[in-house]
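Before the break, one more example. Copy the sequence into your notebook; we will annotate it together after we see the structure.
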Amino acid sequence: MNKREVFETVKAHLLTQPHRSIEDGVCAYRGPNGEKCAIGVLIPDEAYHVGLEGKGATHDDVLKATGLEITGVEDKNFLSQLQIIHDDVPVRDWAVELDAFERRAL
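Here is what the structure looks like once it is written out:
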């Protein structure tokens, strides 16, 4: 999956699931009702395990679980920024922020 495909996957997911994936008050790769965060949607179900929770988007275990070929700092920053949109931007602003991110990053 290239950056464009990653972005399109995350954008479609976040705008279809218009709420955060939260478990015990903390953003989670997998939420209690099947929700997924920006990076969680990139982790196939068979690669997901609860041990990933609490680890940042660029942690080696998380990156391995996504199956993406991460080639350096730029790719890691790209994923981190997508995760920040999910975790820190108000849900009502996701569409605008994703559009701005797309213009900056792609």
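The mean pLDDT is 96. The chain has one domain: 3-105. Try to locate both features in your own notes.
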